[in-house]
Amino acid sequence: MIIDPSTQNAAENYKLLIGSILPRPIAWVSTLSEARVANLAPISFFTAVGRKPPMISISLQPRSDGVTLKDTFVNIRDTGEFVVNVVNLDLAHAMHRSAFEFSSDVDEFTAIGLEKAQSAVVRPPRVKQSPIAMECKVERIIPIGDQGEHVVFGEVLRFQIRDELYLDRGRIDTGALQAIGRLAAEYTLVQNAFTTPVDEQILSSLSRKRLGRLDGHEDGYSPIDSKSWSASGATL
To answer: For the chain, how many structural domains are there in total?
Structure first.
């Protein structure tokens, strides 16, 4: 199958991207509006882009109407600050609920029932339960294409790391983190690790084997047609 993305609309290309680039790390972004209303949103177009200074990027699309800019982007653009909170398994459902498109005057920490913690050097609060938070200031914002999308580059001013996760020589105990990532319509738990080469017997036993499920649904299930999938339909 060869597909020319220029013959498809944005939604069709989006489906191919999110089904091919996986698992994607989730930036659970907290911001403050100019009116000091706290906002939370999960962003899975997210990666590290620099080391000195440490730099991350997040890409933001409009709301589900395809036109209105997301509160996360507006707040970042207007205040120049944001926090990236790392999501682990304990926080997965709260993170998913924060994808709901709340009104701009709603404090999403309060709506979801999450406790705020004060950041060290930026104004937006961080998620207190998050194991790692990165306090960022905007380095630059780049508009992408003609669909109202933007890439935000942020310099990490402070890392806030739960003490037991910080190891000798400045490492993170990734084995204890229980980080989750985004697939296409679902999430995945990071729960195994390996180095190469992998034993041939293991490779053979896993060849074409489908992933396991933690939620009890049958193999092949997808929430893509349910209200719990999209940002605009995430149930509370």
So the answer is: 1
